[in-house]
Amino acid sequence: MNRKHEELLDEIARQAMIDQGLDPDFNKDVRKQLEGIRGPARAGDSIRDLRPYGWCSIDNDDSRDLDQLTWGEDALDGNTRLFIAVADVDVLVKKDTPIDRHARHNTTSVYTAATLFPMLPEKLSTDFTSLNEGEDRVALIIDLTVNEDGHIVAEDVYRGLVHNHAKLAYDRVAAWLDGEQDEPEKLRRVEGLADSLRLQDRAADRMRDLRHENGALDLETIEAKPVIVDGRVVELRQAKRNNARLLIEDFMIAANGVTARFLARNGFASIRRVVRSPERWDRIERIAEELGDRLPPEPDARALEEFLKRRKKLDPMRFPDLSLSIVKAMGAGEYVVEEPGDKPAGHFGLAVKDYTHSTAPNRRYPDLITHRLVKAALAGEEPPYGVDELAELAEHCTNQEDAANKVERHVRKAAAAYMLADRVGDTFDGIVTGASSKGTWVRIFNPPIEGKVVRGSEGLDIGDRTRVKLLGVDVERGFIDFGRR
User: For 267-386, where are the alpha helices, taking DSSP H only?
Assistant: First the structure.
């Protein structure tokens, strides 16, 4: 594939954005507002100066929009005090300004193989509102204490001024935590950071173990992403879960819970992220039965987690495929409004009741909404959103997230079609990832690519293993068609 093919992927991505009702570019009003923003926000007198803490970011190697920093310290009696700093985007992007209206329309950054469509202009998301290494930034601080059993025994939310002392990468930190490599040079230069990260890792383990005891699902379904080198799609690379990724995941789950409870305590309605009981529990039951196991007739998170533990131990190689089947049968998450006193819908997969989105405001609009609510509560002001507006936004964010996922999936399929273009007629082993009136989809194992079964799909259901023949591809439309062998 030459350079013009990479350009075609960009054209496909842009058209997919438009087709899904998303804006691929920033309009002149956004650009005009951006010109007036000269630099990062300055800290006022009421903001706590937390710069002496050895804050660090842990993210992907190529991440430029840094939303979170962490720090941890020994709180005695076996407890660990954790600090999570989240970028304060609202301080520069006020409600109902042109930049906010663009962000409100798209509601999320869209990441494709060829092009990134950021929710916010990159002057903000990768600079002025990003928690960049070596820079002072205003942030929202989630402060919590975790005991030896993994319970949060104290929590608070406030504003602070922070300094990122080290930009670290998941894989390198994980290799150090696992004793496979020496500590990274950047980590070594920050006094106390190594000890802090080990404390953070142990606290994350305790919180994760507690959630799994309560039924949180241990799933491995990280999407394979196309890798483009010199304009050519050379592979589909799947990021590996590791201790550093799990540490950040667990901290974000905890931070989102603290934020949700803070708003509830202050009598504020909020947008919650929920995953209800699985839509296809009957199918999950059948998957278990086909593997010689049993699940109760009604959705039961603890029983499902125990089943997953057994399967991971018995068949670790095929566990990611089982995980994918379970995720597909569970159905998608959604945003809903929760008013004070409502019974939380909760997040089935995470086994938590209080859960909002608050940790990625540079790339996710619900998080920016949550920050505005939190800051109003901290200032003793009225909520910036009424319940009806929040309900409208929750539905809109759910719909736009679905649209963004379709764009990303379409471009992944277009890139995958390039890789398979010269393999029409070959046969592959795969697993069924979708089965409905709209069609049946299968993901082949090598390379990990999903396509539609256009011939011989009768009787197939989610989780079934099958052998398919590649019948054809259409790069521009992102079509990969299989026939059942």
Answer: 281-290, 301-314, 319-330, 365-379
